[in-house]
Design goal:
Shape: elongated
Helix content: over 70%
Order of helices and strands: HHHHHHHHHHHHHHHHHH
Number of strands: 0
Length: 395
């Protein structure tokens, strides 16, 4: 018997034994469980389901899709400056630093008599922890000789470890259950309600508008921080403000994408947009469009195929757009760059060929005053340049 079939049989016997020992059934009653465990195929949606998702007829699908579109726009706008600022990994460290804030907020709300699952309270805890993580990274960078990568690695590992420790404490609390908090790590769009939509949309609009209003200042900060400081601009305050906007987008994206994958949503759309243009304003708008479209596609695919998690699908869609942009973008794409370089090499080779031919004809004249056209051999051309016979034939 193949190994996979043996493993499936063992799983069936395990669950059947549990049912029999608990007095809830027999082997016949356990048959549906065996069928459920053996059913691993993907059920493709019908035409009606495609239409329902495309037109946002379902209430929960509508909330998830609109929330991820708003998140994608905000992530694209703010992420453009985060990319140019070369702070991509800082967003990753910031996302991980929110975990202890979520866990601590849960503990505080439980001790206060609540359930601990109040989303605004959890988001407030994540925001405070994220801000503390950003300030800690800036303090390490500005007060020591350590580089940014050391500060990022320190904050990322310590805060994430602290968050896992708090989750362990929650599991041992008799009046609390940490079930559901893992959704902030991996993302869980299915649990969204209208309050979540209002919260995500409001913060996304605020972050996007603030970034657009500070477009000139953030541009100067990203491209020439020393010049901005010499002109009297508060570069440190602008830096903190930019990271604060990144924090807000990271926090609202925890439930939909998760703190592990939110960095991909912040960096991949602007990275893909960078291949298409050389202008910053166009790049920022294109990044917002890519983020919105990828959020819509990822959430829609997840709604059509329930076994596919929305956060992972969104990241895979953005990664696909990034790969296509990297290869086929006309401005900075790999394929277009290769074609341009190939065209340039052909042009240079033809110019060298003409120059070598002219030198041969010039040397064949009597006194150099009169140049006349004459036939010459391929060996004379090869002697003039460091070409191989095969390359000369191609030229």
């Amino acid at each position: 018997m193949p190994y996979l079939m043996s493993l499936g049989s063992l799983r069936f016997l395990f669950f059947a034994a549990i049912l029999i020992l608990s007095g809830q059934g027999s082997l016949e009653a356990a048959a549906p469980i065996r069928e459920s465990l053996a059913r691993t195929e993907v059920q493709w949606p019908s035409a009606t389901e495609w239409l329902d998702v495309a037109l946002l007829r379902n209430y929960n699908t509508r909330l998830v899709v609109l929330s991820t579109i708003a998140l994608g726009i905000a992530a694209g706008v703010v992420g453009a400056f985060l990319l140019l600022r070369k702070r991509s990994l800082m967003g990753d460290a910031l996302a991980h630093s929110t975990l202890p804030g979520i866990a601590l907020a849960f503990i505080i709300m439980v001790l206060a008599g609540g359930t601990g699952k109040f989303l605004p309270g959890l988001i407030a805890g994540a925001t405070v922890a994220g801000v503390i993580g950003v300030l800690l990274m800036l303090a390490i960078r500005n007060t020591t000789r350590l580089h940014d990568d050391v500060a990022l690695g320190f904050v990322l590992s310590v805060t994430f470890g602290l968050g896992l420790a708090f989750l362990g404490v929650i599991q041992k609390m008799p009046q609390a259950s940490a079930a559901g908090l893992e959704s902030f790590i991996y993302g869980k769009t299915a649990s969204m309600v209208m309050l979540d939509f209002y919260l995500i949309s409001g913060i996304a609009v605020f972050a996007s508008v603030a970034t657009i209003l500070l477009f000139k200042e953030f541009t100067l900060l990203c491209f020439d921080e020393a010049f901005a400081a010499s002109e009297g601009w508060p570069t440190r305050s602008l830096d903190v403000l930019l990271l604060g906007l990144v924090t807000s987008v990271t926090v609202i994206g925890l439930q939909s994408v998760g703190l592990i994958l939110i960095i991909a949503f912040l960096i991949t759309p602007p990275s893909a947009a960078r291949f298409w243009t050389e202008k910053l304003s166009t790049m920022m708008m294109l990044s917002a469009v890519i983020g919105a479209v990828c959020g819509w596609l990822g959430a829609s695919i997840s709604a059509l195929v329930p076994r596919l998690p929305a956060g992972a699908i969104i990241v895979l869609v953005t990664s696909t757009v990034f790969l296509l942009s990297m290869i086929f973008a006309p401005t900075r794409g790999v394929l277009s760059r290769h074609l341009r370089q190939r065209k340039l090499r052909k042009k240079v080779d033809r110019q060298h060929l003409l120059r070598a031919a002219f030198e041969i004809i010039e040397e064949g004249s009597a006194d150099g005053s009169e140049i006349s056209n004459r036939p010459f051999s391929k060996s004379e051309l090869l002697a003039k340049r460091t070409w191989t016979p095969a390359r000369l034939d191609r030229i």
